[in-house]
Design a protein that fits this description.
Elements: E1 7-14, E2 17-22, H1 24-30, E3 38-40, E4 51-55, H2 63-78, H3 83-100, E5 109-110, E6 113-114, E7 120-127, E8 130-135, H4 137-144, E9 151-153, E10 164-168, H5 176-191, H6 196-211, H7 214-227
Parallel strand pairs: 2-4, 8-10
Antiparallel strand pairs: 1-2, 3-4, 5-6, 7-8, 9-10
Helix pairs in contact: 2-3, 5-6, 5-7, 6-7
């Protein structure tokens, strides 16, 4: 498969490493639905060795954090370290840079509790007892979990209020229904007793099918609404 269709523009270069902005929606539809905000070769083998890929952001204000992360992750994995070890070290570097940027000061805590109104942007819908919210992805990553990506819900993340599903505002609007479908289905499967890993795998399979058939996306979203 030609990868040329995935490239949008060259962003910069760090030594021998070329940093590209890519069409993440196209990658998730045609190659790998698990590709998220960014990636490098030793995590995603289809990325050339000396390239970093950054998804096009709806809110393009985290590029520097992602590059700092990738530089650490790429170096350690090239040296033979495991992905999980490299991820921990890269997360620490990224978190340090986010703290330096002043993001911690942007979310007020009351009696030690997060002011969730600083994270919420606007409701996207009410589905049964579940509230779906568009949230500030940058603040969620900086304050709560640096690895938060695309979306999440209360059965995975303890910081998400009960019966809420969060959709990252960094996700382009065209993909938000797919992320919503994934999170709704995953949460429903976990509520039935599946582990996160089992539920995520089933939700990813459903998401992949719906990425290739818009009618299936509409049908499955409608079915989930009826069940809740």
């Amino acid at each position: 498969m030609s990868r040329k269709k995935f490239y949008l523009k060259k962003l910069s270069q760090r030594g021998d490493i070329v940093i590209w902005q890519v069409d993440g929606n196209c990658i998730r539809r045609e190659l790998d639905e698990e590709f998220t905000n960014f990636g490098q070769h030793y995590r995603f083998s289809y990325i050339p060795v000396n390239e970093f890929w950054l998804d096009k952001e709806a809110m393009p204000n985290e590029r520097g954090f992602f590059i700092d992360h990738l530089l650490v992750e790429w170096k350690l994995m090239r040296e033979g370290k495991t992905y999980h070890y490299a991820l921990r070290q890269a997360d620490q570097k990224e978190q340090s840079e986010r703290t330096k940027a002043g993001d911690l000061a942007k979310v007020r805590r009351v009696n030690g509790q997060l002011d969730v109104n600083k994270i919420h942007i606007r409701p996207l819908g009410q589905i049964g007892e579940l509230s779906v919210w568009l949230v500030r992805g940058r603040l969620t990553r900086s304050i709560l979990n640096v690895d938060f990506t695309e979306g999440g819900h209360d059965l995975v993340y303890k910081f998400v209020p009960a019966n809420e599903i969060w959709i990252d505002d960094d996700v382009m609007s065209a993909e938000r229904p797919l992320v919503m479908l994934h999170e709704l289905y995953e949460r429903g499967q976990m509520a039935l007793g599946l582990t996160y890993e089992q539920a995520h795998a089933k939700a990813s399979e459903l998401e992949w099918r719906c990425r290739h058939d818009e009618k299936k996306l509409v049908k499955n979203l409608a079915a989930l609404r009826c069940k809740l």
